[in-house]
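Chain A, query sequence.
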Amino acid sequence: MQKSIFSKYFGVCATVVIASIVVLGSLFIIFASNYFSSEKATLLRKNVNIARRVVLSTSQYDVSSDSLNVQLDSLTLQNSFLLFAEATDSVIFMTDVNGNTLICTEGDNCNHKTYQVPQEIRAKASKNGEYFEKGTLGGSIYKSSQYTLGVPVMLEDKAFGYLFISTSAQALNTFLLEMIKIFIPSAIAVLLLSFIVTYFATAKMVRPLTEMSQAAKNFGKGDFTARINIDTDDEIGQLASSFNNMAKSLSALESMRRSFIANVSHELKTPMTSIAGFVDGILDGTIPREKQNEYLRIVSDEVKRLSRLVRSMLNLSRIEAGELKIQTTQFNVVETICQTVFSFEQQINDKHLDIRGLDQDKVMVEADPDLIHQVVYNLTENAVKFVNDGGFLEFSFTVEGNITYIGIKNSGDGLSKEEIPRVFDRFYKTDKSRGMDKNGVGLGLYIVRSVVNLHGGDIIVRSVQGEYTEFVFSIPTAKVKNSALVKGKEKDYNELKEKREKESLPPTPPTGQD
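Chain A, predicted structure.
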């Protein structure tokens, strides 16, 4: 069974909390035990030192050169030891240097006289000044665990006996049991509180992930309306924000895809319906023989329209797939524009247009000549198409460091504020365009922007309704000395036009690009 993120995270947190409390409890017991033992040792040390002073003060001794003779006041010491023993709930006994018990507060019930305190214990007491243990004192003197502290009794740096004080270690167990009784309810209360806090904190933390999981499932079904509520600015909040941005982009792409399919279907259906109708009319004799050529020309125009649509879509797919590679070289963009304008000479003459801005010297750029020609052609074609009779076409060139800005402007009705943001969308055609442009498919400006972006440039549109429309795009400047905006060194548009007229060259027909 697959575990959810919530159960995993909650399980980890709960395990950490439980382990922390167990470790804390263990350390608490260890430190409490050590503290209790230290306090017991301090208490026993205090009393055994008092007892030692009593021994020294009540004993009579004779120090010779070879031996130390000591006479103990057993009755006095017995009574004194009893007072100390009752005050500390302990047993006090004194041994000679060989470990044999001389005086004990247990009286006739004394068990120490049966055993001799081991030499190892007496040696440690003499060496360290005292001996302390928690155990049975030599492994056999006591039947249960005892705290025992022993000190040597010395005169003239010579030990004549040892004092031991012992108390039951059962008090430690009682003390630890009481501590555990306090700790366990406290630990349970902390655990419950931690579990509750962890549960709600985990639920709140995992909620955006759960919503994202459900939204992703909806995305798989084609529903891109789901959004994640963001109330934090941490990593999960940033992830949710990125997810919402992705959802917005997917929604836009889905809308664009549907629009793309609808527009392509429409653009393909219209000419194909016309072609099929006219061909059937010719075949079944509905269209008279004398009018067949006229309708065949219409069929030819529709076939060319389909060809333009397919070519534009192929170019578009190559650009979006990253398969269209630019081959940059240095060339004079003014010459490219002049040649493009000549291809529209017939339309320019029919509309009596004034051509401005082509009286420039070289404007050298570094780009793909063929692709830039397509950009210039599409923009010029639109300008010629929508310019008013007797109006003008104006071309501008501005070189700013590594960037060259090229503008193509036409007088006319212009664009509305609602149309300007959408002119570069695929298959978008303004209402005016639908009335004046019967052959366009609405991909020209989208391809123009894509080509300009491939060169690292950008394109903008400026327009004032009833006055003009201008498209300005930027491409890299050539890495040579540019003589832009200096007149007289190159043939301008008018000079080229005169040359073509003298040579009686026919105007170049439009290539049918969008």
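The first strand starts at residue 60 and ends at 63. The CA atoms of residues 97 and 160 lie 6 Å apart.
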